[in-house]
Amino acid sequence: MTSTVDPTIDPARATRGSSRLRALTFLRGTEFTLIVLSVVGFVALASTTGGNLLTGPTLTAVFQYLAVPILVGLAQMAVLAVGQMNLSVGVVTGFTAMVAAWLMVHIGLPAPLAVIAAVLLGGAIGLANGLLVVLTRINGFIVTLATMTVIDGLRYGVNGTGTFQNYSSGLVSLGQASLIGVPTVFILALLVAGAVAVFFRRAALGRQLLASGGNPLAARLSGISNDRAIVVAHVLSGLLAGVAGIVVVALSGSVNASIGDDLLLPSFAAPIIGGVALTGGVVAVLGTCLAAFIVRLVDVAQAQYSIDQSWVDLIVGGVVLGAVLVTQVRTGSREGRRR
Amino acid sequence: MTFIAEKLIKVFPGVRALDQATLRLEPGTVHALLGENGAGKSTLIKVVTGVYQPDGGRLLSTAGDGTLAEVSFSGPLDAQRAGIGVVHQERNLVPAFSVAENIALQAVPKRRGFVDHHAMRDLARRCLERLDVQLDVDRLVGELSVAQMQLVEIAKALAVDSTVLLLDEPTASLTADESDRLYDVVRSLRDQGQSVVLVSHKLEEVFAVADTVTVLRDGRSVAEAQPLANYSRDDVVTLMVGRAHADLHLETRKIDNQSQPALELDDVSTSLGHHGISLHVQPGEILGLYGLVGAGRSELARAILGLDAITGGALRIHGAPAHIGSVSQALQRYRLGYVTENRKEEGVFLDQTIARNVSVTVWRRLARAGLVRNKDERVLVDRYRDQLGMRISSPLQLAGQLSGGNQQKVSLAKWLAADCQILVIDEPTVGIDVRTKAAFHELIVGLADSGIAILLISSDLPEMITLADRIAVMSEYRIVGELDNDHRYEHTAHKVIRMIHAEVAS
User: Fold this and answer.
1) Chain A to chain B Cβ contacts (< 8 Å)
2) Least packed by Cβ within 10 Å: which of B85, B161, B407, B487?
3) CATH architecture of the region B3-241
4) Is the pTM higher than 0.95?
5) Is the ipTM of this complex over 0.85?
6) How far is A204 from chain B (nearest CA, A)?
7) How many CB atoms neighbour CB B122 within 10 A?
8) Closest residue of A to B92, CA-based?
9) Where exactly does CATH 3.40.50.300 map onto chain B?
10) Number of H helices, E strands in chain B
């Protein structure tokens, strides 16, 4: 007796069919759209600026300053995976940068130790966020809004409005270096993105986070702790923000307390444009990286054409809103079909 | 594995959901668990699967040496470890995950912290094979049909080596063809020695596939693990209905059937899937709309209220065609109000005063130069406090501090304040204690006597037979029958239940 629900599917054909289906899905998906947009945007920018974009220093800068947006985008994505938000991503990046610099300048800690301490500090703040959400049952939005405000103040507590500079020259020269023409900080961001992708795709813990975000009830009935998933997601988010903080320190050579002020919107922009579901359960590492690149292109265009900075925020805000609308229309029509 | 749930008791505030219910399961059988709405089936399943802890009674299961030993489950995981798998009525799959990952979700095969995809696929294929189902284990569950998802859920329940498998209304959203295939799967599992528990309202299917039966009524098991062959379908219906005590006995009320109906639906279809709905309510009449949970009754109310679209047929109010686009229009123009089922979520503003709650529907009328005076609101409350017998300390008390029954009265008062001529009342007494329930019943009848046309939605059959003048029966988004209510419980209950089951069976 064979009861095939869909009689047209035999397993062999199903597999072949589904790989073709998967290719089709990819072509229709967000990530393919973003690849096309990135290439078109880059080529357009390169040609209209008369090739200026392709000269060594400019090209290096494009990718050097892409590292932080990718990292904060991933930090936001980690909490979006479980259906949470983290408003403190930007200030944690700034705070960890300040603390790392302070450790090196005032405490005299060697750069490697300061780097590790700053990343762990990010993780600890994430842990605090996660525990607060789980233990108090207060909405994560509110909790991270509060911690954002607290850390915002702490950022200035480290060195007031003063600037740290002349810390570890080794770290700075490493941060500004390039490996076969590719900036080291960009390589670092890509490596981290790769690790995050593997974590969510293959690691048991990462899958549990996604299961919890995708259907909390099913996850609970399957023995997955939703509370643990929330805490882990926040810790991961904090760690990634910590890494972003280190990149800032290594790349710029000087840091002050205003770092991180302009990172909140980009942290949401990258995952949302990249196709991450705000409701949880779906992550898109490639999409987040591509979206960060596109937002970066808007920045570059501003610099190349000397556009007023306020237009950049307007454009990025508009793109985020548009991406959310497009996602809503697409999922809406899919649900409509199912019903 | 023999599994016995013995004399289970489960008490919720105001209601004894299980009152010494017993369920005995033997390996290699298909066991039907039957009962009317609210008889305690879902509660029993939740206790057996560890979601709820019982307040009394015990669970016994065959131990390794073949003797019965008491077991206790502190959560769903414990029940799974004891070999009890369940497919709940609501979907419990992660849409963005593959078939294989969903099946293995309770015990994902791991290697050094990473998911062992190879072992996971193997496990999923083995489970699907036991069901004789061929499905690509790499497909995303979100892309599957409802029937395929159902099979994935069963495979998921099997993945934890369950020997008892509970299926709660497994065919509720399947076509007849898909149901047949599902029952083939159930029979093959039985032949492999599984004990399958089937909860279904579709008696036809139950009689086709089940070997033994347990019938619940008011939380009690009135038939315990009896061979189904000893019963006819009528016997089972009689067991399910039994005798229920009526708190209030009403004589048949005189309804003027010649007058213009206050609310009339003529061959209405909706965007939610209703088809060919025709019914009418006269002024002063209570029309009961009965059906199983999920039959589409509240959804019909939503469509009448303009919350969802009416796509065909005609809706007439006092004889004139009506196109209701919003609740506010229903209220302002047609004097049509909806006393909602979820009073906590939809019916009252818990953090607001009673005065605000009652007057919310008439703020526009009360307002002078755009401002509403507190005094006017309080006058309004005083009027309904007596009429509805609301027990409140002050109109300024917060609605959230009231008992369920009084909250329901507040919810009702706001529609009366709006001077409604037609009221749709949805599940008025859910979660309300028996005494308040009787008072509420009198209140509803009183409203009808004053000339208001009432469409009463209830899953509580005794309540329906107590209150309604006529009963329309809905099943799967269609009206399957209508009858005059003679307020004789057994007589009418039989007729109503047959209407539902005859429809479902065909």
Assistant:
1) 95
2) B161
3) 3-Layer(aba) Sandwich (3.40)
4) no
5) no
6) 5
7) 15
8) A218
9) 3-241, 259-335+422-506
10) 17, 22
- Percent above pLDDT 70 for chain A: 88
Q: Is B449 on the interface with A (CB under 8 A)?
A: no
Residues in A closer than 8 angstroms to B110, CB to CB, are 204
With respect to CATH, is domain B259-335+422-506 assigned 3.40.50.880?
no
Whether the predicted pLDDT of A146 surpasses 90 = yes
- B19 touching A (Cβ < 8 Å): no
Taking only the tens place, the pLDDT of each residue in A295-308 is 898 888 888 888 88
- The answer to whether residue A40 sits within a structural domain is no
Q: How confident is the model at residue B368 (pLDDT cuts 50, 70, 90)?
A: confident
* Cα–Cα dist B286/B467, whole Å: 7
For residues B486 and A307, give the distance between their C-alpha atoms in angstroms, rounded to a whole number: 81
pLDDT digits (tens, 9 = 90+) for A268-289: 999 988 988 888 888 999 999 9
Q: What is the pLDDT of residues B277-289, one digit of tens each?
A: 999 999 999 999 9
The answer on pLDDT for B149 being more than 80 is: yes
**A7 burial class (0-12, 13-18, 19+ CB within 10 angstroms)?**
exposed
Residues 459-478, chain B: which have Cβ within 8 Å of A? none
DSSP-assigned letters across all residues of A128-176: HHHHHHHHH---HHHHHHHHHHHHHHHHHHHHTT-EEES--HHHHHHHT
- A contacts of B181 (beta carbons < 8 Å): 3, 5
Domain that holds residue A116: 57-322
Q: How far apart are CA A292 and CA A72, in angstroms?
A: 9
CA distances (Å), B429 to each of B112, B459, B471, in order?
Answer: 54, 10, 18
Minimal Cβ distance to A281: which of B94, B110, B135: B94
A214 DSSP 8-state letter: H
Q: For residue B405, give both structure tokens.
A: 């029954």
**Size of chain A in residues:** 339
Residue A78 has pLDDT above 90, yes or no: yes
Rounded CA gap, A147 and B351, in Å? 28
Residue of A3, A204, A220 lying closest to B108 (CB–CB):
A204
- Dihedral pair phi/psi, residue B187, rounded to 5°: -65, -40
Query: Quick one: how far is CA B432 from the chain centroid?
Result: 16
| Alpha-carbon gap, residue B26 to B38, rounded angstroms | 26
A177: domain CATH number is 1.10.3470
Q: Does B486 touch chain A (CB under 8 A)?
A: no
A229 lies in some domain: yes
Q: Determine, yes or no, domain membership for A7.
A: no
